Amino acid sequence: MSSLFPALTGAPADRPALRFGDRSLTYGELGAACGALAARIGGAGRVAVWATPELETAVAVVAALEAGVAAVPLNPKSGEKELGHILSDSAPSAVLAAAGDELPAALGDLERIDVDVRAAGPRPDPQVSDEDPALVVYTSGTTGPPKGAVIPRRAITATLDALADAWQWTADDTLVHGLPLFHVHGLVLGILGPLRRGGSVRHLGRFGTQGVARELNDGATMVFGVPTMYHRIAEALPEEPELAKALGRARLLVSGSAALPVHDHERITAATGQRVVERYGMTETLMNTSVRADGEARAGTVGVPLPGVELRLVEEDGTPLTSYDGETVGEIQVRGANLFTEYLNRPDATTAAFTPDGWFRTGDMAVRDPDGYVRIVGRKATDLIKSGGYKIGAGEIENALLEHPGVREAAVTGEPDADLGERIVAWVVPEDPQSPPPAEELADHVARRLAPHKRPRVVHHLSALPRNDMGKIMKRALRHD
Quick check: helix, strand or coil at residue 152? Predict the structure, then answer.
């Protein structure tokens, strides 16, 4: 099959490909380094990659894909138990790492291959097919040990080419981001995406508003981030006029991995004139929908299905909704070339994840407008609240709470209620901890903006919300003793 990265040989050898801090590789250098490493790992079943935010991680993953070998990205912050599970489950034959990295004891029995980004070797030509595994990415494991989603080569090409269509993404684009490289967002979209287009990526190592401004002022055209990053940008804008000017120069600002609150959308647009584009995807599906660069950037929505992706909403019994009114909540199911193949060593979980006719059950709840725009209202397991006969998505209540001037952060859950079935519970980080907004005031605020039945019945004030590495709120950790 054709290469995932035609620019490794087709782009000018001196064109910038990757930059991490003050270290960089051109396409010529990247192709040579990947050729040398691919020759060392060719024929391996799977290789683990110690996925630090460094040049070596990008070279290791691209080399594995060039060699036709599946890469298993490892989170360097993983605990010993989680790391042990991933290694025993995926059984890699070696671990690829930067020469100076100190690896934990759990990796001690694996052959270690140090990645030399200045090595040179010819490009390999393995016999691979579209269905061959490209990556095994482990899910966050909120309901048990992480599951390894086997992502085939065709899913990567399908998603990246669909995003190129939606975002008008070309070789002329330079992407800046500071996302971790063991997730789909930072690795597939943030590293493999620019390389498939023949463009360039500048990784900040660690996200910071000054780094974003610097790179945009130096010619970067796109920014990828998660809501936590855009929230920091929105907070910094009043004090950093240069940041507002830099963001105003960007061609595209993209947020993903969780919903970006409407309040942050509005603050960024007001200061920069730019709309942040949201998209929706999962480890198992890569990308499903996006607001298009040439479409309406409707705050609070994740846009329309990408080319090649079928999307439907279904009732609790699996019956598809026959029309979309922007109000009726259903579970998202998707079908297309962007889907994973299986959960590694988990045929039971794989079977349960799909309908008999091949639709993947995402577990995400949404409403869809008549013109196709999708608005996520939360996870089926944690964000769908059934109260007083209504199905209520936590996400819209969280957005309403964030529009209150006294609320800095908010999360919404449901808890059992003898009368309502479930009552709505708000977890709020106040702007002023010494003077938090009263519960009744917040309930009235939500009722006025949405509907009376969507008001919180209980309000808890916190100093911070529990979040994971990608900035997602860990609602299972929100418990009131």
Answer: strand
What lies within 8 Å, CB to CB, of 428 at 6+ separation is 401, 407, 409, 410, 436, 437, 442, 459, 460, 461, 462
Looking at residue 307, the DSSP 8-state letter turns out to be: T
Average pLDDT (203-214) is 95
d(CA 443, CA 440) in angstroms, rounded, equals: 5
**Cα–Cα distance between 14 and 116 in angstroms, integer?**
19
Residue 429 confidence (pLDDT) above 90: yes
What pairs with residue 458 in β-bridges? 425
Q: Within a 10 A sphere around the Cβ of 139, how many other Cβ atoms?
A: 16
Q: What are phi and psi of 229, to 5 degrees?
A: -70, -45
From CA 63, how far away is CA 44, in angstroms rounded?
12
143 pLDDT higher than 60: no
Contact 360, 354 (CB under 8 A): yes
Tokens 């993209």 -> residue: 254
Superfamily grouping for domain 384-477: ANL, C-terminal domain (3.30.300.30)
HSE of 139 in the Cβ direction (CA atoms, 13 Å)? 23
Q: Say if residues 243 and 208 touch (Cβ distance below 8 Å).
A: no
pLDDT digits (tens, 9 = 90+) for 228-258: 899 899 999 999 999 999 999 999 999 988 7
Taking the C-alpha atoms of residue 14 and residue 26, their distance in angstroms, rounded to an integer, is: 5
Measure the CA–CA gap between 181 and 71, rounded to whole angstroms: 12
Q: What is the pLDDT of residue 1?
A: 47
Superfamily of domain 7-184: ANL, N-terminal domain (3.40.50.12780)
Same fold, 7-184 and 384-477: no
pLDDT digits (tens, 9 = 90+) for 34-68: 999 999 999 888 999 999 999 999 999 999 999 99
Task: Write down the pLDDT at residue 480.
Answer: 59
Q: List the domain boundaries for the chain.
A: 7-184, 384-477
Amino acid (one-letter) located at 153: R
Cα dihedral across residues 353, 357, 358, 363: positive or negative: negative
Q: What is the C-alpha separation between 146 and 151, in angstroms, rounded? A: 15
